[in-house]
Write a structure and sequence with these properties.
The protein is mainly alpha-helical. The chain has one domain. The protein has helices at 2-37, 44-58, 61-66, 82-117, 136-156, 174-179; strands at residues 120-123, 126-129. Strands 1-2 form a two-stranded antiparallel ribbon. A hairpin with a 2-residue loop joins strand 1 (120-123) and strand 2. The longest helix has 36 residues, at 2-37. The radius of gyration is 20 Å and the shape is elongated. The chain starts with a helix and ends with a helix.
């Protein structure tokens, strides 16, 4: 199951990386077309704000958590014994799963609402549907919630599958991750 989850996570991360590249190319072409031909590319602002940025923001969330690379502030927990830190982290996985599940539900309701009304933006006389990318956030939060549930189950079962010394993806070794 973890291999399937990691495969989905990798695909979403690749999509986010592709969105960054496509966004850079489109913005560059838009500027060049504007300066050279006085004809900017249509809908660039809408596509950047409503398509590329949500993909760049939400799709890599699961990947970053899978690598245990989210920002952590260990101001208080650093003084706890190692076992206390491990137990606190285990229960935080459950709390985080619940929070992400609520976020997934709330953004899903919003996305379905935008889908039903056919949400769109107008830019330079062009109608650009904006509802499709509304589903990026609930999908990402849902997967993040599932990952936290898996981490909580691993904590309860005392499985080392999510420990820092275990590589998250077969293509990365532990030494490469710690050097970064």
């Amino acid at each position: 199951m973890l291999k399937i989850f990691d495969g989905i996570t990798s695909v979403l991360s690749i999509l986010a990386a592709m969105a960054v590249v496509v966004m850079m190319v489109q913005v560059t072409l838009d500027v060049v077309m504007e300066l050279v031909f006085n004809k900017p590319l249509p809908a660039t602002l809408t596509l950047v704000a409503k398509y590329y940025m949500p993909m760049v923001t939400f799709l890599p969330l699961v990947y970053v958590e899978r690598l245990n690379q989210h920002v952590a502030a260990d101001v208080v927990t650093q003084f706890l014994p190692r076992s206390g830190q491990k137990h606190l982290a285990g229960w935080i996985f459950l709390f985080s799963a619940v929070v992400c599940a609520f976020l997934s539900y709330a953004t899903w309701v919003e996305a379905v609402d935008k889908f039903h009304i056919g949400s769109f933006s107008m830019e330079r006389g062009m109608k650009v549907p904006t509802w499709p990318t509304r589903f990026v956030a609930p999908a990402s939060y849902g997967l993040l919630s599932l990952l936290f549930v898996l981490k909580f189950i691993a904590y309860i079962l005392r499985s080392p599958v999510f420990d820092d010394d275990q590589p998250a993806f077969p293509t990365f070794s532990t030494s490469e991750r710690k050097d970064q």
